[in-house]
Amino acid sequence: MKILGQVAFLLLLGGIWCQNNRNTKAGGKTTKKSSGNQGRDVDQSPPVADATPGSTGSTRGAGGSAESGQEAAAGARAAGQQTEDMRLHFLKNTQVTCNDGTAAGFYLKEFRGSRRWLLFLEGGWCCYSKETCDSRYQNIPRLMSSSGWPQTKRGSGILSSQAEENPHWHNANIVFIPYCSSDVWSGTGPAPTPPPRPRQGREKDRDRNTNATEYNFMGSLIIREVIKDLIPKGIKQAKVVMLSGTSAGGTGVLLNIERVANQLEQLGAEAQVRGLVDSGWFLESKQQRSPNCPETVSCSPEDAIKIGLRLWNGVVPDRCRRLYKRGEEWQCFFGHKLYSTLTSPLFVVQWLFDEEQLRVENIYMGGQSLSEEQWQYIQNLGLELKNSLRDVTGVFAPSCLSHTVITKSNWMTFQVRGTSLPRALQCWDRSLEATRNNRTPAKGCPFHLVDTCQWPQCNPTCPALVDQATQQELTLLQMLVAMGLDLQKLDLDPQGDADSLASMVSNGG
To answer: Per the record, where are the segments of Low complexity compositional bias (predicted)?
Structure first.
């Protein structure tokens, strides 16, 4: 049970089954062993696909060279490879690295002449102790090391360079920043090494003292260095820089957008920095946890972040940090507490019944069982998320059970009150441009879109529910029955409630 709990917990803020098993044993300054194919990955639909199958990427450490990888990519392009691929660049500052000391970096697809930049932060939760970091390194090495990164990737959804899949951002400069710091993009370096123990039992103590500080946690520094390395590519001339991310990457946007805006301003850029947060707007857990959380893997997200912040040397936005006393900075990881302190424009994309939020409470839709109390929690979750988004200017919140959306190839199919997500983002863009130019925003172009119906899956454009055992598509009521709920006991009439759901949807749900 402990192992199952650990795997489920690592899923929070972004994890489904691993799609990419090409990761090799990580190099760099630590010599961990990777048994690599049993882990969980970040998204059900990976935001990018490897465009060079079989490639193991560069295996250089923090002080190596990226030239050979760039030459390989250039050779592939000369051989006729499609130009929509994003190409891997390692950071010029070799002191800023992934967890294991291998080089951090980014993938870039340039669009010559464009003054719009889309920077994307990958998701994948975090680790916060030796036990959780070692498990992560063994099971999901690509989230801690660059040793297995391919030379090129191809984006999907908002990262696609195809106009039919990405109508409003396909012609931007697109930057994908892989997540290899395990710190929700907040770390600024390795934490201080704990003081040595007394001389007695020195050998045992040395083993006990080997903790997660052997890893580097530099997520916030990686973002800073990516911006620096994009200066020769023209980011100083940008008109708009959109910092986006899914899951833990979405939370990373919340934590770093003000820092990115300040960095670009200090460089003399006149770009407006905007944020796009997908499935990174979480609520605190309601589940009671073990009081000895630091000694277990069953920590709540709040406790994991409290512990992790010290380990990562994590930073939060200054204006939010000043709201809380020392030791309470973890509260700035929650969007509903941080949002009002931000000055940069922000658009929030959030499923009202986010699967990762449910997993925190040990609720797995399509799993084996569901209690009446858990069903009640699910219903209340939608209402709580709606309330938390009430004052957010730009929002797209369908009443669906899912996790992440902007990097899925079918992201254009989801709608709220007849407006698709790409259309809502375009309306938001136009409104910001109008405001910047002292014009009145156009009417009839909505960008605050929250479903009004109360049930999960009451939006007809929701992703289908799939039974995990049979892989068959089910309606919500069919799934509730399959998970052991007595519909009559809950006063749910399958036919009547189906009719009421249809009515709510037709009335603008």
So the answer is: 23-39, 67-79
Of 350, 440, 412, nearest in space to 166 by CA: 412
- Residues 241 and 271: beta-carbon distance below 8 Å: yes
Which residues, 6 or more positions from 364, have their beta carbon under 8 angstroms from its beta carbon? 358, 468
How much is the pLDDT for 285?
Answer: 82
- For 118, residues 6+ apart whose C-beta sits below 8 A from its C-beta are 158, 159, 169, 172, 173, 174, 175, 242, 244
As a whole number of angstroms, the distance between CA 217 and CA 26 comes to 16
Q: Which residues contact residue 308 at a Cβ distance below 8 angstroms, ignoring those fewer than 6 apart?
A: 126, 127, 128, 183, 184, 314
Q: Which residues are known catalytic residues? A: 247, 354, 403
- Say which CATH topology domain 85-192+213-461 has: Rossmann fold (3.40.50)
What is the band of 272 on the pLDDT scale with cuts at 50, 70, 90?
very high
| 262: amino acid identity, one letter | N
CA distance readout (Å), 319 to 61, 224, 276, 282: 36, 19, 20, 20
Q: Record the pTM.
A: 0.81
Q: For residue 236, what are its two tokens?
A: 């100083």
